[in-house]
Amino acid sequence: MKAYLATAFLARLADEGVAVALALLALERTGSPALGAYVLTAWLAPHAVAAPVAGALAERARRPRLFHGGALAVFGAAIAVLGLTVGRAPVWLPVTAAVLGGCAGPVVTGGLSSLLGSLVPEGRARSRAYALDAASYNAAAVTAPAAVSTTVAVSSAGPGTALLAVSAGCATLLAATALPHPARCAAVDAGPARSAGALRDRITAGVRALWSVPQLRALTAATCVAFLGIGGLPVAAVLLAGAAGDAGAAGNAAASGQADGGGVLMAAFAMGGLVGSLGLARWRGAPEAGRLALGSLCATALALAGAALAPAFPLTVALFALAGLGDGPLLTATLRLRAEHAPDGARTQVFTLGAGLKLTSAAAGSALVGLLAQLPPAALVLGVAASQLAAAAVLRALDRPPPRAEGRSRHRSS
Fold first, then answer.
1. Dist. CA 81–CA 348, nearest whole Å
2. Going from the N-terminus, what domains does the chain have, and what CATH number goes with each?
3. d(CA 344, CA 379)
4. What is the pTM of this model?
5. In this predicted structure, what is the pLDDT of residue 247?
């Protein structure tokens, strides 16, 4: 388990730092962040499309740890190429590298998480493993922007990007050598997939599972709605911090304070998520995954609504941390629900496709907040809070058994 967590953290550290690195590379070399935004779009776009294919290939891989190591190698190589070409080579070159790296992205997120079902036995140990896996995401979200920004401040954007490539390279070595023997994974997960039929059937297995299994359908719809808001939270946070600092600064100082304040808010949110995930790993009486997800969404919504209306910036920071504390267990609940309800032979597809859809929804949310940036910042943050409540309502509505089944249950108990 320690080798898995080290691999997951290093891979996700690289993933979490890409957006910051691309923006800084473009700004340093072209004077504008626009190129970085284009390349980031090329990086994110393939995730949902590549997720079913990546999941199907992972399911049928005879040596899963080599497959994951190979995908991470492509991921790290793409980041290295971006560091060398953004702002220095024709645009098609970094865009092509970004597309290839984005195609490996689902393995870094859902693909690695899907291995836990074969690495850890069922019960309390597996629930704790998923909580620690969720913590690896939060830890990477806290560490990556700081590591890249510090490296850029000391040197330049190139070495900052190289740091991410090295992190992905270390994850590659760990995945190929330190994870448990592939025969164990194959015996549990890959075997049914090899006899499932044609590759095309395996590719669509995850889609069918997400649609036909009520719990997975409810979870996927709810998390997509939630991340439509969360994807726009970084932009909304920067604008909210700017509004809070307008009274005390002007000009360049105000712009600097706006960016720094937004970073403080998102760092508080990520730190809260890390504490929430680690706390859940130690909570022996944690509720079942569906109730945990519902409570997490509601807690995040209430804290963000309070942050939008807070009269002082320190209180806003505290409420962003509280929102992260509520959001952290959501990923743990998501991983547990996918593991519990994914059909045999489609586990990895369920994980990769679910993560890809979530990321695509987050990208759409970021674009939406950009279009609505003229609205009051508090209204934007309230919109993010509302998306969490809407997600809770979707989860509640879709995760109910059919009325006929409820009727039979009441009849039998009477």
1. 28
2. 1-195 (1.20.1250.20), 206-398 (1.20.1250.20)
3. 44
4. 0.75
5. 44
